[in-house]
Design goal:
By secondary structure, this protein is an alpha/beta fold. It has a single domain (3-8, 32-165, 182-212, 246-255), classed as Rossmann fold, CATH 3.40.50.150. It has helices spanning 3-13, 19-22, 48-56, 72-75, 91-103, 140-150, 169-176, 186-195, 214-224, 232-240; strands at 62-66, 83-88, 108-112, 125-131, 151-160, 201-205, 249-255. α1 runs antiparallel to α8 (186-195) and α9 (214-224) packs across α10. It is globular and about 50 Å long.
Length: 258
């Protein structure tokens, strides 16, 4: 494993929840209600990720959405996209993706499983999009290689400037006396791409909330912190006074070879 990829994996390992805390968790700490990440019904925002995907997408083209969730990334490309292929490891998310495509009369396919394990089961597409998923990928080299191999025209990856759990580091310290790692970051991802001889287009934009409300943010944070429902008021109080962390979103785009 090369140095940038090794650093990425080591930093992600640092986010593992210790067993003595995990065993006390009343709920799955990684659960997110699909309703919280539904694609908006309003016209999609003109983001760098959307623009860079549209530049490479032909009329009636296909989009592969890796870690699709409820489909926000790919549904923002309809039209001109004529087929969406959603891949997700959570059945509930794929159910929400199918429902959203059906409501909007968009042809779709779905594949259940983790990327890149299921890549061989997934057809190629004109454009591959992957929003806010790469921080879950320990084997980042295989993850990127399979994204590239499935894109006929372009890969577009969006992620936060810092690991999405980094803002909760003070609360991990407060509730569990547990220190959290400083990364990985979007800069670490860029280093991985450069080690793979990929020179992407890189753009930055202000971050956008991915949850509908502060109440949703409290619920998700409380689950992430392995705390019971009774402590949601304490989590809410903690969220309100968290120090500022970078909220920028980075977009990376590079040619596919599918």
């Amino acid at each position: 494993m090369d140095s940038a990829a090794r650093r990425w994996a080591e930093l992600l390992d640092g986010w593992t929840i210790p067993d003595d805390i995990l065993f006390q968790a009343p709920e799955d700490p990684w659960h997110i209600d699909p309703v919280c990440v539904e694609a908006p019904v309003r016209p999609p925002e003109d983001t760098p990720s959307r623009r860079l995907a549209l530049e490479a997408l032909p009329d009636d083209g296909s989009v592969l959405d890796v870690g699709c969730g409820a489909g926000a990334a790919s549904l923002a490309l309809v039209p001109p996209a004529g087929l969406l292929i959603g891949v997700d490891s959570t059945p509930a998310m794929l159910t929400a993706f199918r429902a959203a495509c059906t409501r909007r009369l968009v042809p779709f396919e779905t594949v259940l499983g983790e990327w890149p394990t299921v890549a061989s089961e997934v057809p190629s597409a004109d454009v591959v999009v992957c929003h806010h998923v790469v921080y879950n990928a320990r084997d980042i080299v295989a993850f990127v290689v399979e994204l590239t191999g499935k894109a006929r025209r372009r890969v577009v990856v969006e992620l936060g400037a810092v690991h999405p759990l980094r803002p909760l580091a003070p609360l991990w310290r407060h509730f569990w006396k547990l220190e959290r790692p400083p990364g990985p970051t979007a800069g670490d991802f860029l280093a991985v791409l450069q080690e793979l001889d990929i020179q992407p287009v890189v753009e930055q934009a202000p971050g956008r909330p991915h949850l509908r409300s502060f109440e949703d943010a409290v619920t998700v944070a409380r689950r992430r912190l392995c705390l019971p429902v009774e402590q949601e008021p304490d989590v809410a109080a903690g969220l309100r006074v968290l120090p500022k962390t970078p909220t920028e979103v980075w977009t990376f785009a590079w040619p596919g070879d599918g």
